[in-house]
């Protein structure tokens, strides 16, 4: 392709899931535009993360960019291709093409910068074919780069060994959820795949402690329960606050800096509402003793590999998921 994929220089991608209809209260169109204007005023290019299944978000971002011509050239939008769980056994090339072209039309761009494939159940065959169809769209110039989201080591290895040019894998990583640091991070480092990490502030629980009720925050509270409950959360927050005071930073800055310092991590995905995060959290200098103290705050681990608990539809993590948000309409 004409443009090589590069992670944001700031290390921060601004997540737009909070703007989705039905995610949580409080986001009008005017407030969303104001938040986007604020993010666009920060130094450097503005990287935004959205998805085809975030109801209304691609259209909203397309409208905002169309109304901000002087800014649009500095905006890089990452979106996703998330087929419904029920459609996985029968998904075809035309379905993938429809999803991707719809995203391009909603965002009003000539080509999509990065499309990230999510596959709910690797026990259902077809995800390698779906990635190949994304590669075809890349060859056509509809998509510039291909990523995946929530892929474990084995599934990502399969795609790369098939020759599919995956450049990113978006996964959850935080002080509380360190699953990617097992086999996935070394593998991605070796194969040149950047990890884009959501949940590094645990919906605000690791930042200022405020977290408005939403499906995302419900998910992060389940993570807290897996790794030791409120006591573990308070230990983590205490260490973050200690380091933040020394560095004249915020606890959220420290949490993001910790994630950015892990192997293969290219960026953290932080919601637009988190304005207290520094423009570049990597300015926070973590000492070896800081890493040791932060590691000691949480002794338990989320069970399984990356996203394994979430794929268990009978378990607490799987029960809160919504698997049917990819509609043919708007």
Your description of this structure?
By secondary structure, this protein is of the alpha/beta class. It contains 13 helices and eight strands. The chain has helices at residues 29-40, 57-66, 69-72, 93-107, 127-140, 153-161, 184-191, 215-226, 229-247, 251-260, 288-295, 308-311, 316-319, and strands at 12-15, 46-49, 75-81, 112-117, 143-149, 166-172, 194-198, 265-271. Strands 1-2-3-4-5-6-7-8 form an eight-stranded parallel β-barrel, surrounded by five helices. β5 (143-149), α6 and β6 (166-172) form a beta-alpha-beta unit.
Query: Sheet bearing the most strands, described?
Result: 8 strands, parallel, barrel
Number of strands: 8
CATH class: Alpha Beta
Sequence of strands across the biggest β-sheet: 1-2-3-4-5-6-7-8
3D shape: globular
List the helices and strands and how they pair.
Layout: E1 12-15, H1 29-40, E2 46-49, H2 57-66, H3 69-72, E3 75-81, H4 93-107, E4 112-117, H5 127-140, E5 143-149, H6 153-161, E6 166-172, H7 184-191, E7 194-198, H8 215-226, H9 229-247, H10 251-260, E8 265-271, H11 288-295, H12 308-311, H13 316-319
Parallel strand pairs: 1-2, 1-8, 2-3, 3-4, 4-5, 5-6, 6-7, 7-8
Helix pairs in contact: 2-4, 4-5, 8-9, 9-10
